[in-house]
Amino acid sequence: MTTAKVLTLGSLNLDFIYRVDHIVASGETIGAGDVQTRCGGKGLNQSIALARGGADVAHAGIVGADGDMLLDICRESGVDVSRVRVDEGRSGHAIIQVDSRGQNSIILFGGTNRAVTQDYIDRALDGYGAGDVIVLQNEINMLPQVIAAAAARGMRVVLNPSPYDDRIDECDLGLVWLFFVNEIEGEQLTGESEPARILDVFAERYPKANVVLTLGSEGAVAQFGGERFEQPIIPTTAVDTTGAGDTFTGFFLAEYLRGGDVARAMLTAVQASSIAVSRAGAAPSIPTLAEVRAALEARAE
Ligand code: ATP
Ligand code: RIB
């Protein structure tokens, strides 16, 4: 199997990460023990995970004049950013609380992530065609138009419908080749809460699509070409779970596109995301393929 070209058209965010004892409740004021500015955004995280996982990946999206560090981390990780546009406005950002158990709560500000136009979509997709892969999330505007334009070129559409909102309902989900959903998005899309039932509904509604359902500390299940797969987590001490799903997505795809082996892609992805949750931050926590392979080899000994 030859490695496909991958394009992510997605968000790039500055993550303002506040370390707190617990997630603040309505009406409550709490102090933060620490604050850090780090690179994130579901699109950027997934591009970096793809690149560190060994895929040939370019990122398209829009940053503001404050976006230098976002472009720098992409370049350092091997992501082609020649299609990223720099605008006058402010880059997207996320205000993230991380509690003592590593769990998070996030407020998103779209900023320049939401300045996508049809003209920009056409330029970003120029040169891509049949068999190439596009990776999408729901932190940019014009998502339905991006899906339609990519599918019209014969690209394989990968969708992580996160964060889920009404705009997902405007998309033609019948054009999606591979979904990545967590339990919450799986329930929002299907009305079912049991993992097996979520996969059943995907099979009924989107018979041509594949789906990977991540289950947090319960691991992940997948349905590929009608076959089902299960993969438990690789246990670790959770420091910060932000970006665990993005790391999973990037490493799964990179491994799958290399060899077409779903079980191996699941194992590689749980190892990569286990390392990511053991470290702070979203993009900075994403391991390299060498680290992931060394960890898998150490486990096999
Ligand atoms: P996020 O939105 O924070 O990026 P998500 O909700 O999309 O995450 P999850 O299902 O929470 O995704 O996690 C993705 C994967 O990360 C899981 O399938 C699992 O392999 C790994 N993971 C998550 N939590 C843990 C944990 N506590 N220990 C080890 N691995 C974990
Ligand atoms: O999936 C994690 C990401 O969600 C964070 O990096 C933050 O930017 C939000 O988009």
Write the layout of secondary structure elements.
Blueprint: E1 5-9, E2 13-19, E3 34-40, H1 42-52, E4 56-60, E5 62-63, H2 68-77, E6 85-86, E7 92-98, E8 104-109, H3 118-125, E9 133-136, H4 143-152, E10 156-159, H5 166-169, E11 178-182, H6 183-190, H7 195-205, E12 210-214, E13 220-224, E14 227-231, H8 244-259, H9 262-277, H10 289-300
Parallel strand pairs: 1-4, 1-9, 2-7, 5-6, 9-10, 10-11, 11-12
Antiparallel strand pairs: 2-3, 7-8, 12-13, 13-14
Helix pairs in contact: 1-2, 1-8, 3-4, 6-7, 8-9, 9-10
Describe the structure.
The protein is of the alpha/beta class and 301 residues long. Helices cover 35% and strands 23% of the residues. The protein is built from ten helices and 14 strands. It has helices at residues 42-52, 68-77, 118-125, 143-152, 166-169, 183-190, 195-205, 244-259, 262-277, 289-300, and strands at residues 5-9, 13-19, 34-40, 56-60, 62-63, 85-86, 92-98, 104-109, 133-136, 156-159, 178-182, 210-214, 220-224, 227-231. It has an eight-stranded mixed sheet, with helices on both faces. Strands 3-2-7-8 form a four-stranded mixed sheet. Strand 9, helix 4 and strand 10 (156-159) form a beta-alpha-beta unit. The longest helix is centred in the C-terminal third of the chain and has 16 residues, at 244-259. It is globular and about 50 Å long. The two termini are 29 Å apart. The model has no long low-confidence stretch (mean pLDDT 96). It binds adenosine-5'-triphosphate and alpha-D-ribofuranose. Residues 182, 214-217, 219-220, 233, 236, 238, 241-246, 248, 270, 273-274, 277 line the site of adenosine-5'-triphosphate.
